[in-house]
Structure formats: structure tokens, C-alpha cells
Amino acid sequence: GENVEQHPSTLSVQEGDSAVIKCTYSDSASNYFPWYKQELGKRPQLIIDIRSNVGEKKDQRIAVTLNKTAKHFSLHITETQPEDSAVYFCAASREESQGNLIFGKGTKLSVKP
Amino acid sequence: GAGVSQSPSNKVTEKGKDVELRCDPISGHTALYWYRQSLGQGLEFLIYFQGNSAPDKSGLPSDRFSAERTGGSVSTLTIQRTQQEDSAVYLCASSLADIPSYEQYFGPGTRLTVT
Questions:
Q1: What is the pLDDT of residue A62?
Q2: Closest Cβ opposite residue A105 in set B41, B103, B107
Q3: Nearest partner of B86 among B34, B15, B6, judged by Cα
């Protein structure tokens, strides 16, 4: 089955700097990669996702990149703000299959003002 | 509209007691998932339901854990003979279908503390 590794487990950046979180997956057939954000004391929410037919996707200050050959994908946050502080989870799955998402263990991002 | 709700929000129980955790999914969502989140850990998949199909129980950590979903809506996660290592936040999520690319909407979670 699929296995998702996420690094780093914690990340601290200064406001305005960029943050990068990386995930690797094991199942070469996985083709759907969402990212969820969980603010302190709140529930996880989907912030962006990417499918294997594209290499990059952007949404304002957030971007995701995918390297299918190396089986890794990354979340990039530019011009970080204190409200970006949260735990970020990556996940991987086969979009056409029924079933659950396989999540990474999460990255706690702290943005210092 | 109403999101996913869970009850209770907090539960403190003594070791060895049974507990029931409840999840009310978004109306019309046929897929329902249960996850466990221990301190500093990720989202550990436990079980999911899709419509009237048999649930996928592959993530349940032991036979002390069980779940049911009545009428394709409300779900109850039961933990029998609780142990201290069961202490965690239990999250429920629902989606339109059990297709991974359908967004999962999470509930606020139930924080379980086993003393």
C-alpha cells in the first residue's frame, strides 16, 4: 500500500520568508496529492491539490510542485504571514480508486512576526 | 450550511471503561471517515464507510475499536476497555463519495483522555 513521508516535522520562518514542505510517496500509481491545513485548535481543511497530469499548481501565495519520476511533491508558501502558522498535512492516493487518503505525519509551521 | 459535527467535544474516562463517540456528517455526503490524531502525530486512518457498502476497517488498531453507521448518516465509534494509549483527538470527516479527490470535510473532533 501507499506510504507517505513528510519533512520537516517542524519549520520556523520569519514573516515574509518562504517555506517549503516536502513529501515523498511510495505508490507509483498515486496520481492525486492534496494538502490540508490545520490551524491550532481547528479542523483540517483542504487548501490546494495537484494531479499527476501537471507539474505545478499555484494559488496566490501557495504553490505545489510534483516530480513523478522521483515520487515527491512539495508545498511552497511565499511571503509568509503569521496566519500561515499551522500544521500542514500532505496526502497521496489513486484518484480513480475508492478509498481513503494516505496522510503524512504533518509539518508544524511557525511564522515569527 | 451545517458542517460535520461531533460529540462530545471532550471526554475523560477511566481506564477499562467503554466510550462512544458520535459523528454527524454533512447531509448528502455518502462517505464518512474516522481518524485518530495523537499529540504531535499525523492523521491516522481508522475506518471509512461508503453508502451501504461494507466499511473498510483496515485502519482499526485493535478489536477493541468498532464503528457503525446507521441509516447511512450518523456514525458511532466505540472503544471498549479503553487504555491510556487511546488518548487522542478522534476526527470524523465526510465527503460526497469515497473518491480521494472529493474534498473531505472534517469535524471539530472529540478529545479523549483516558486516566
A1: 98
A2: B41
A3: B15
Distance, CA of B35 to CA of B108 (rounded, Å) = 12
Distance (Å, rounded) from C-alpha B36 to C-alpha B41?
9
Residue B102: band (very low, low, confident or very high) from pLDDT cuts 50, 70, 90: confident
pLDDT tens string B46-68:
999 988 888 888 889 999 999 99
Per DSSP (E only), the strands in B25-87 are 31-37, 44-50, 65-69, 75-79
Once rounded to an integer, what is the mean pLDDT over residues A75-104? 90
CB A97 within 8 A of CB B100: yes
Between the CA of residue B21 and those of A99, B64, B78, what are the distances in Å?
22, 14, 6
Category of A26 on φ-ψ map: left (φ > 0), alpha (ψ -120 to 50) or beta = alpha
Q: Please report the DSSP string for A1-26 in residue order.
A: ---EEEE-SEEEEETTS-EEEEEEES
Give the integer Cα–Cα distance in Å for B111 and A100: 22
What is the rounded CA–CA span in Å between residue B104 and residue B27?
A: 13
Residue-wise pLDDT tens digits, A57-67: 999 999 999 99
Are B104 and A46 inside 8 Å of each other by CB? yes
Q: Could you tell me if B82 and B66 are in contact, meaning their C-beta atoms sit under 8 angstroms apart?
A: no
Of A6, A43, A99, the CB nearest to B108: A43
Chain B environment of A44 (Cβ under 8 Å) = 43, 91, 93, 106
